[in-house]
Amino acid sequence: MELIFICPARNREFSTSRWWIPHSLTAVSDRKGGKRLQGKVEAFCPYCNVFHEFEPDQIPCPLKSERSTEV
Ligand SMILES: [Zn+2]
């Protein structure tokens, strides 16, 4: 599955299926009673040719109910 990431070095969007979760993600409850994912996702950046580390919150994930604005 391809996901969209934003390169932290160049601040540019890229989509890749070369991403993985080095440690398992855990769903934690926040103070409002909502659930959020906690953990790290690594994705291969075509601009830098390296893997960047992302928080799940930083990824406009199609699995989430709310999507950030399409560019
Ligand atoms: Zn990059």
Question: What's a concise summary of this model?
Answer:
With 71 residues, the chain is mostly beta strands. The protein has strands spanning 3-6, 13-16, 19-20, 26-29, 35-38, 41-45, 50-54.
* Poorly predicted runs of 5 or more residues: none
Radius of gyration: 13 Å
Task: Name the assembly state.
Answer: single chain
**Tally of separate domains:** 1
Query: Structural class, please?
Result: mainly beta
Give the averaged pLDDT, no decimals: 83
* Ends distance: 19 Å
How are helices and strands ordered from N to C? EEEEEEE
Q: Biggest β-sheet: count, sense, barrel? A: 3 strands, antiparallel
Strand content: 35-45%
Spatial arrangement of strands, main beta sheet: 3-6-7
Helix content, binned percent: under 10%
How many individual β-strands? Answer: 7
- If helices are DSSP runs of H or I spanning 4 or more residues, what is the number of helices? 0
Hetero groups bound?
zinc ion
Describe this structure in words.
The chain has one domain. With 71 residues, the chain is an all-beta fold. A hairpin with a 4-residue loop joins β6 (41-45) and β7. The strands form 3 sheets. The protein has a 3-stranded antiparallel beta sheet with strand order 3-6-7, with no helix packed on it. A two-stranded antiparallel ribbon has the order 1-2. The protein starts with a strand and ends in a 17-residue tail after the last strand. The chain is built from no helices and 7 strands. The mean pLDDT is 83. Residues 7, 9-10, 45, 47-48, 52 line the site of zinc ion.
